[in-house]
Amino acid sequence: MTANELIRSSASAMAAKLAAKEVSAVELTQAHLDRIAEVDGGARGVHAFLHVNTDEALAVAADVDARRAAGEELHELAGVPIAVKDLIVTKGQPTTAASKILEGWMSPYDATVVKKLRAARMPLLGKTNLDEFAMGSSTEHSAYGPTRNPWDLDRIPGGSGGGSAAAVAAFEAPLALGTDTGGSIRQPGAVTGTVGVKPTYGAVSRYGAIAMASSLDQIGPVSRTVLDSALLQEVIGGYDPLDSTSLTDPSTGLVAAARVGNVKGMKVGVIKELHGEGFQTGVEKRFNESVELLRSAGAEIVEVSCPNFRYALGAYYLIMPSEASSNLAKYDGVRFGMRTLPAEGPLTIERVMSATRAAGFGDEVKRRIILGTYALSAGYYDAYYGSAQKVRTLIQNDFAAAFAQVDVLISPTSPVTAFKLGEKIHDPLSMYLNDIATIPANLAGVPGLTLPGGLADEDGLPVGIQLLAPAREDARLYRVGAVLESLLEAQWGGPILDKAPALAELVKTAAAAKEAN
Amino acid sequence: MSTETILSFEEAMEKYDPVLGFEVHVELNTKTKMFSSAPNVFGDTPNSNVNEVCLGLPGVLPVVNKKAVESSILIGLALNCKIAEHCTFARKQYFYPDTPKNFQTSQYEDPICYDGWLDIELEDGTVFHVEIERAHMEEDAGKLTHMGGATGRIQGADFSLVDYNRSGVPLVEIVTKPIEGAGSRAPELAKAYVAAVREIVKNLGVSDAKMERGNVRCDANVSLRPYGQEKFGTRTETKNVNSLRAVENAVKFEIQRHAAVLDSGVKIIQETRHWHEDTKSTTSGRPKSDADDYRYFPEPDLVPIVTTAEWVEELRATLPEPPAERRKRLQADWGYSDLEFRDVVNAGLMGEIEETIAAGASAAAARKWWMGEIARRAKLADVDPAALGVTPAVVVEIEKLIAAGSINDKLARKVLDGVLEGEGTPAEVVQKRGLAVVSDDGALQKAIDEALAAQPDVADKIRGGKVQAVGAIVGGVMKVTRGQADAGRVRELILKTLGVEG
After folding, report:
1. Distance in Å, alpha carbon of B48 to nearest chain A alpha carbon
2. What secondary structure letter does DSSP report for B372?
3. Domain map of chain B by residue range?
4. Predicted TM-score (pTM) of this structure
5. Which of A319, A326, A332, A384 has the most B C-beta neighbours within 10 Å, making it the best mutation to test the interface with B?
6. CATH 3.40.430.10 fits B441-498, yes or no
7. For chain A, how are helix, strand and coil distributed in percent, rounded to 5?
8. Could you report the per-residue pLDDT of B243-260, keeping only the tens digit for each?
9. What ipTM score was computed for the predicted complex, to two decimals?
10. Sign (positive/negative) of CA torsion B108, B112, B116, B119?
11. DSSP code for A43
């Protein structure tokens, strides 16, 4: 097997090869580091990574190989490398949240999920790009430049977790960690033809994930197959005493669910409000086909209505900025990170804080801090934050009513395929609409999964299919998702990413073309 | 420092009716902090008792300290409060470098304890019923020290130092309802209320309750209104008044200051005031209005605290004897008269005396020292007796030295001087200062023989049976030994020398 074939395997296939000693962890890790070197950098590179953790990743891989040679019993994913969204703190590597304000900051502690990755002995390839503080749907709001979509280097990879999704889609990593506050795992998954899961709120510890909106944020897996996400969620999930909102449920049964292999007798609800008008033609078409595939596999398809979902975006854009305005107050230049002194005038603590925040935060972050500060202000709290919380309850009620009728819900993940870099950067409202289908799950705390549903006819770009399940029923997503995935791949004759352009050539050609210009 | 005009207290009281209110912050003595596993220890090297959570580093999450919740419930129960079955935390948001997250995690709409009361007994036995509005949980801020500049405040300082050891220490804030009707007893009531709260939390064992360390801190609200007016006047809040005497003085000063301001036809500015122990006056802090916008919202990183009736009853069962009952018992145990005991209580020295007795002193000796020499010196130094630096162990050791005849009462006071000047334990001071009584009989005998020779007529009187005349000889001996003799032993030796039975 060539290195190129190796990196295109699923994580579970890589794990099997490692276990069978067909390949070493060092070879596997090096193959990914080589791929990163090949496609990530340069003027037209994917730019999925903000930091590449070469030495440590290889050291961990070598340690895995030594332990395996000594006959030590290892975790199934030991030696399978992984990329980590740069919103999650790691010892030994910088954590920036893609913001200037944290440039050069080194966390003195590991996030709980990172500790779990280390315990499973998974080499950490590096930190992936994102919209600054996870605020955005295109990764264009990164202070360190955008990530490019491996399907078309002039297009966005989604956001905020565009780096993790692009890394996986570009075979720079078989697995990645993402965070999802309003769709930041699922929407990038949809537009890059990859799989991503936002687990039930509390199923994965948030300790060490830099908070945007605490009541909405959730860490989850990013991968190329449904089974791989299940494997990764089992590693990172479970109760954490350091996260008071952590659930006590064990993180088990997900891999088994992905291996059930049928959906006979399951009821799948099509959410009336989340397809049709406002959704791109090709997205709608692929979505309908997926629904029909599930029907043909023995699932019962039911149309359900979630009438309050139409208020979700409005409620989200009050709750999220409110919490974000508070969570981001600590970035003031006093204790860590960047410090900027005022250009003129007296040097007081308030003015240093102010100058630091003015220089350190990007426009989208400032926009949300201002929105949130306003929404929480005396006299406006009830009308804004208070009302939004009521809407949240209504949305939870809609989910409860829907799940009384069906086992899982299905919708397109994103209303559109990947748009062009720069296309929506100056139109926040249009940017926000990308998360219309993903936001309700965050508001209700229920789990959601996206998997590739094919390519849109009009642009040949990936379409994402979203599955939603009741809280703590993440296993259902993996069961239905894996079945739908195998039905689709049977139609396509292989994984969707086989249809993606040959990236290495593309990156080189594009760079050469740019140079020629 | 203060250029404020004030009215005499008597005149202020003739014209105006004071209304009081107190916010008392109690630092809990839990092993770890309110929301992090960092140690809660006073006095360590700055910024040593911290971890990523109480430093507010990116990505951290709080976890509620269960012991702190239990301590809060105990305080609520001791203050006759209702305990909320369900309560939440909220974020109080403001930018200031003593708060690493730039918000303080506190309770806002639903405090864990509410609707309580406390009966406060003044020195003459008058009882005031003080209603408690709430007692809520929160975290302490870090400690800022402003260096340079004239004001000792952040504005104008050359630089400021911050110690986050205190950041995240569990606090319970006890808030009274407005206290009306105290009249001229207001300053006394203020002191007695804070003393009562301090006594309760100390008695519960939930706080070290040392005001000088900031374990118990009082913000005193004062407003005046003309007699007969129902509406409250504008209040000021004097912050961090950190001794019982200061609470009394601060309330008294603010009453006098308000009265002068109101008399001059000017409105009181609603503001915080800073108490200055040196000038016994307050100065203006920052303007404070009820519309201060802290943008409170429910803390999304914490789940609500649910208290079951079973849990609360379990805690109630562990409540120690209430202070009032404890006082009755202690008075009986110690055998003090009503007057003696009330003096002890009013001096705030019951705890010290109890500890001293527990450490081995007799009840009479403990009272003699605390109410006598220690109280006298504290008054001179203008501090609370407990803050003077004399520990129960010192008192016990001095008493033992007296009982063993090593020193006498007069020397004991010199020993105390040495202890307070940091010369070591009483025994060490005795040694270093050479304060031991002359117990060498040979040396004493020589002094006695000389004294008898100097006053032969007195010696004759004693020989003749007038034993009371021995005092004159004793006096002579003490003079020669500069007081460092055991008078009892001297007397014995004189009588023996003269062959007279004592």
Report:
1. 15
2. I
3. 9-315, 323-433, 441-498
4. 0.85
5. A326
6. no
7. 45, 15, 40
8. 999 999 999 999 999 999
9. 0.96
10. negative
11. T
